[in-house]
Amino acid sequence: MAKDTKSGFSDAERAAMQQRAEELKSMKGVKGLAKRQREFQACLDAIAELEGADRQIAERFHVIVSEEAPDLEPKTWYGFPSYATGGEVVLFVQPAAKFGTRYATVNFSEKANVDDGEWWPVSYAVLEVTDAVEQQLRALVRKAVAR
């Protein structure tokens, strides 16, 4: 991921920032149910645009979040399939292809209740969603939204 020495951001990073600006612009003036429906569709569209392992991971994670944390609202955030409460992102999938990384990650924001003592992981590399991985993701999602 080559950096532009002038701005300090790679082309992929600048594209992600542009995506975020477009996400915000597309929701300007849209409220309530219409906004949630648009954000939901944007999340599904973002997943549908993925390929290979990125798509498989994002599709399974979408199902897991829908079943384990149905109150979270699907949306996109910097183009990532994301899940929020009160407009604040709690969980998101960063596809490997987005920044040319070796693996996709499932990420938890500071709004997620994953705290565990003095330190804890907030990002997990995922190569594929096996039964064992799915069970771990389900437990993490439940913990993230526990009150």
Structural overview:
The protein has 147 residues and is an alpha+beta fold. It has helices at residues 11-27, 32-48, 52-68, 96-99, 131-145, and strands spanning 73-77, 80-85, 88-94, 104-108, 123-126. The N and C termini lie far apart (39 Å).
Quick structural summary:
By secondary structure, this protein is α+β, with helices and mostly antiparallel strands. The chain contains 5 helices and 5 strands.
Keywords:
single chain; 147 residues; alpha+beta; 5 helices; 5 strands; 48% helix; 18% strand
Spans of 5+ residues with little confidence (pLDDT < 50)? none
Read across the widest sheet, the strand sequence of neighbours is: 1-2-3-4-5
| Strand residue content | 15-25%
What radius of gyration results from the CA coordinates? Answer: 15 Å
Order of helices and strands: HHHEEEHEEH
Helical content stands at: 40-55%
List the total number of helices: 5
Structural shape: globular
The SS-based structural class is alpha+beta
Q: How many extended strands?
A: 5
Question: How are the secondary structure elements laid out?
Answer:
Blueprint: H1 11-27, H2 32-48, H3 52-68, E1 73-77, E2 80-85, E3 88-94, H4 96-99, E4 104-108, E5 123-126, H5 131-145
Helix pairs in contact: 3-5
